[in-house]
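To illustrate the input format used throughout this study, we show a single complete record. The first block contains the structure-token representation of the backbone; no residue identities are included at this stage. The design step must infer an amino acid for every position from geometry alone.
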């Protein structure tokens, strides 16, 4: 593992990133992840976003009930993380017209298109009965399955550029349709090669985030490459720093205007 806190700190400093880097762990909860918070009822995992920022680790336990009566968090999340028993027969209509379903979300033009998406959505296979989501802890690196950066548009553009730094493929970064939780692991594993994913684009979960926040999720291998960026990469160039400085100036100017008015 070519990874340590110094390298992570170097990347955080270049990005001027103040929020924690979030990891998804395929392991059981333990004292090393405390403080812990248990997913409850039908709550979306992103309802715990502010608690991740405070250093708490979300525990998602298998045996989450059913779509009609979830026990340990949203049942869609359980399916996306490989804990579910499959989608109910009305799920394609739930995503579209609502026919014989609890509601219709209108996310696809036809139920047939929605069903094609569901058929392609192959969930990962967890090692045990728990998935954890919380701040990156290097002492548990072997249990990390994905790493996610929750950032604004400026830092997202930088992270996309860095994640694709070692590739000539203009489509190196993917932005697939999926649930927010699906974009954190399932969709990232669904390609025939390692591809970073732009996430937090699920309309249903965005209410739990500040409006400017999106995320980029990457594999552990990709993250190791990213923190080892060379000294002559763009993050150390003046034009990247000029962008950050201009944002700081505009923030100060807006604050001054508000004081005047």
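Output of the design step:
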């Amino acid at each position: 593992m070519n990874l340590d806190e110094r390298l992570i700190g170097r990347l955080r400093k270049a990005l001027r990133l103040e929020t924690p880097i979030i990891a998804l762990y395929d392991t059981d909860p333990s004292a090393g992840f405390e403080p812990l918070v248990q997913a409850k009822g039908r709550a979306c995992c992103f309802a715990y976003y502010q608690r991740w920022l405070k250093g708490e680790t979300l525990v998602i336990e298998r045996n989450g009930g059913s779509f009609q009566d979830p026990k340990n968090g949203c049942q869609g999340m359980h399916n996306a993380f490989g804990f579910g028993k499959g989608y109910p027969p009305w799920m394609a209509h739930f995503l579209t017209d609502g026919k014989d379903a609890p509601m219709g979300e209108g996310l696809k033009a036809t139920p047939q298109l929605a069903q094609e998406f569901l058929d392609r959505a192959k969930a990962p296979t967890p090692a045990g009965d728990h998935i954890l989501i919380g701040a990156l802890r290097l002492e548990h690196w072997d249990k990390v399955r994905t790493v996610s950066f929750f950032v604004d548009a400026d830092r997202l553009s930088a992270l996309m550029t860095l994640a694709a730094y070692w590739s000539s493929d203009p489509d190196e970064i993917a932005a697939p349709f999926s649930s927010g939780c699906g974009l954190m692991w399932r969709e990232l594993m669904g390609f025939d090669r390692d591809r970073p994913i732009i996430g937090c684009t699920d309309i249903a979960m965005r209410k739990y985030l500040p409006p400017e926040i999106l995320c980029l999720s990457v594999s552990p291998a990709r993250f190791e490459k990213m923190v080892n960026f060379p000294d002559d990469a763009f993050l150390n160039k003046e034009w990247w720093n000029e962008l950050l400085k201009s944002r700081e100036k505009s923030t100060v100017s807006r604050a001054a205007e508000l004081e005047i008015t």
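Structural context for interpreting the output: Residues 5-84+123-229 form one domain. The radius of gyration is 20 Å.
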